[in-house]
Design a protein that fits this description.
single chain; about 475 residues; mainly alpha; 19 helices; about 70% helix; globular
């Protein structure tokens, strides 16, 4: 079950929210139990087999937390946290990477939905307990809710225990917070079903072609379509998760901040999938020494972190290379490129960064490294640019007509902070707050209606991060 489905929108979510709001605010434990049951049903809908795996993970880490509270000696506590990390990463390794390292010797192993996300979440709990940043959660139901809470269960954002510790035990919501949550959810839904789904069909069609047989224009069209697809797919899902959190009294941290306007790759990673970037920084990069042990060690640490970032996304060489590719540019910028970019006109920094992440997304999307290499070569084979050929290669239902190109342009515009800038200008005018409130209300109704129309009018509803 995904958020952008009629089952979730018209049955599951309304029932969960109605029951949740009927429980008086003072009975937080009852609300937690209701959300826990709902979350388990949500996960079991797509992963009946692996609900038991999640329960085992909850139980094991609950015990790890108790042991960390019980033991006082540093060596004992260190042993517990090491065992917890081995246990959690062991589960992730077995289900996600065993086939990669054994040449598909275990073809029957199916990847549990969201295992990469909830593994990192529960690891943040045990590690922070060990560091003394949070107290041990003695209520197993509260810990279970933290790990399984359905808004962020299968695709993040990666919510660290330290960020929601207080809200699990006590939280509140108002009419205003619920309204903000509904608006945020609606925007996320529109990102997913209106923009991402539309450009996804175009990207899927083009990436199905032999890379060497398409024109450069076709290759660029596919790469741009996928660049928009992955951003609006993932940021849309994060918006929906954050919006549902507001509806229930949770305040999840932001996961995206207009990454495509970045001027450097370093800035890109401060704006893209921020919950993952922050997790790797706090739990891997800094413990490795960060940038405190000299330049060479810093570069080694960056390579390790970005190799892990790439491999976290999937058990395939293209993900690993994608991570190392971004790590390479992180190092190059530290070697002096960033200083050059700061001195030249801003537009050149934007062009450089856009080229880096678009080529990176080709690596990410390609089924093999060879295809990715051939695809990138085609992108820069300007002797066979052939824009008309790009259109001619697409036919039938996937022909990029006026609507598709309009959505492409709209996606490019909305990937920049133009709407927030306009909102601020209107708010600065006399009566601007009222105008903004009115426009928001009308806009949300239109967005929701059009999103539902798109959703019910097509059964094409891919979700990129569902497999991570």
């Amino acid at each position: 079950m995904v958020f952008s489905s009629t089952l979730f929108l018209f049955i599951f979510l309304p029932i969960v929210l109605i029951i949740y709001y009927l429980i008086p605010k003072k009975y937080v434990m009852l609300k937690n139990i209701e959300l826990l049951i709902a979350s388990m049903i949500f996960y079991a809908w797509g992963e009946r087999i692996y609900v038991g795996l999640m329960i085992i993970s909850i139980a094991a880490n609950y015990v790890f937390g108790l042991l960390l509270e019980l033991f006082e000696k540093r060596k004992q506590r260190l042993a517990v946290v090491i065992i917890s990390v081995i246990f959690n990463l062991g589960l992730l390794f077995f289900f996600k990477y065993i086939n990669f390292f054994t040449n598909n010797a275990f073809p029957s192993i199916v990847l549990p939905i969201g295992i990469s996300f909830f593994t990192f979440q529960i690891m943040s709990y045990t590690i922070d307990v060990y560091w003394g940043n949070v107290k041990t959660q003695r209520n197993i139901f509260n810990l279970a809710l933290y790990l399984s809470l359905f808004p962020q269960l299968i695709a993040g954002p990666i919510v660290r225990y330290i960020d929601v510790e207080r809200e699990i035990g006590y939280r509140t919501y108002t009419v205003d917070s619920v309204y903000r949550g509904v608006c945020r959810f609606t925007v996320g839904l529109a990102k997913k079903v209106v923009i991402s789904n539309t450009v996804a069909l175009l990207a899927d069609t083009i990436f199905a072609f032999p890379a060497s047989g398409m024109s450069a224009a076709t290759a660029w069209l596919g790469a741009i379509a996928y660049t928009l697809q992955i951003y609006f797919d993932f940021s849309g899902y994060s918006d929906m998760a954050i919006g549902m959190g507001h509806m229930m009294g949770f305040n999840f941290l932001e996961n995206f901040n207009y990454p495509y306007i970045s001027r450097t790759v370093q800035e890109f990673w401060r704006r893209w999938h921020m919950s993952l970037s922050t997790w790797f920084k706090d739990y891997l990069y800094i413990p490795l020494g960060g940038n405190r042990k000299g330049k060479i060690r810093t570069y080694i640490n960056l390579i390790i972190v970005f190799a892990c970032t790439g491999f976290w996304h999937g058990a395939a060489w293209n993900f690993l290379v994608w991570g190392l590719y971004h790590g390479f540019f992180q190092i190059v910028e530290r070697l002096g490129l960033k200083k050059i970019l700061e001195k030249i006109p801003r537009v050149f920094g934007h062009i450089y960064t856009i080229l880096v992440f678009i080529i990176g997304w080709v690596l990410f999307r390609a089924e093999s490294l060879q295809y990715a290499w051939d695809y990138v070569k085609t992108m820069f084979s300007f002797h066979k640019w052939g824009w008309l050929n790009a259109v001619a290669q697409l036919d039938g239902d996937t022909y990029p007509g006026t609507y598709t190109f309009a959505i492409l342009v709209l996606g490019i515009i909305l990937s920049m902070p133009i709407v927030p800038a306009l909102r601020k200008k209107i708010e600065a005018m006399r009566g601007g707050d009222t105008a903004v409130a009115l426009l928001r209300g009308v806009g949300m109704v239109v967005l929701l209606g059009f999103s539902i129309l798109c959703l019910t009018g097509s059964d094409y509803n891919p979700f990129i991060y569902f497999r991570f």
